[in-house]
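User: Teach me something about this protein's shape.
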Amino acid sequence: MVTVSLSDESVQVLQEWPHARQVFVVRRRVWRPRKQDWREEVAFGIDSLDRERAGPAELLRLNRGHWQIENRSRWVRGVTLREDAGLVRTGKSAQTLALCRTVVRSRLRLERVTNVAQELRRLAASPLESLRLLGIPDN
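Assistant: First, the predicted structure itself:
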């Protein structure tokens, strides 16, 4: 176990989070295939579970679970479906496009698609298959 002493400023910040019970640090090495090297990362977290309910192993499991959600949902919407590159940011158009992306992501999950980018390329080359996937007759 590593003991970290907090500065007065850190203690003050934590006091502003009344449900905070633990602060943790995750150190990891990430392989970057394009650069063919490793990068060191340090992530800090605050949790509302006390040490009796969530020790180091449980905090690590919860942290990894968060990233599973990030990778399955937000990454697909933001990067694969290019939501982050969209120019529409306000009004009903932005909400409508976000809903369309959610429908596409959900429909592909129901089809048990594991590689969304590859499936989108396949569907782009086969418009009738895209309609079938959405339940629209091709006649």
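Now, about its shape. Strands lie at 22-32, 37-47. The first strand starts at residue 22 and ends at 32. If you'd like, I can walk through any region in more detail.
User: That's plenty for now, thanks!
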